[in-house]
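Bumping with the actual sequence this time:
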Amino acid sequence: AVALLASCGGEERGTATLWVTRDRGAQVLVTAEVAAGQSAMQALDREADLDTRYGGRYVQVVEGLEGSLSKRRDWFWFVNGYEADRSAAEYRLRAGDVVWFDYRDWDKRRSQPVVVGAFPEPFLHGVGKRRPAVVVYGAGLRAEAVRFAELLRGRAVACCSTVPPADANVLALTSAPRPGVQLFVGEYRGKAGPGEAVRFELTAAPDELQQVVEHARRRYEWRRPQS
């Protein structure tokens, strides 16, 4: 995994975005623009009512919501769509970052390695470095793919016409098999860890693709109908 503490030079100037939610983004508690250059924990402390544990390294209570082993609920955090692998006190915010703290249960699924709710992250900034971006599109979606490629500062390629580079982040666009079907999910392409290459799958009717992205804002994933 990429060392999350890394930051340098101009990246410490400017601003980042902070979100605090609960239940996988179902309820928004805090949204704020924060200064880059500080740690994610410092930003959280300045914008929310925060209690920590283990010498300030881990989040215990935010806005009155407390992590509990017996209740199987805790605080998890993400940076640019990646589930963090260490303390928020160790990550220094860079300009453009989206840092997201979410309070949720973990009895059925403890880890959510990649989330789509901060899109267009991790395509624009990532963690540690920005990866090449490739939009792979299915039949009838070329125009939409070109628009997404412009947003992601990448390139659009037809499905099966070429294999995206192994180090690229990939957005795969496909048309829904029937009306009402919508899907927006993310996963690692291979090696897992913050900053590694991801693949996002976005499926909907052509005129609903952008709508699905908006619906998925601050959500781990988006599925309609729900499975």
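The tokens above came from a reply further down the thread. The CA atoms of residues 184 and 202 lie 5 Å apart.
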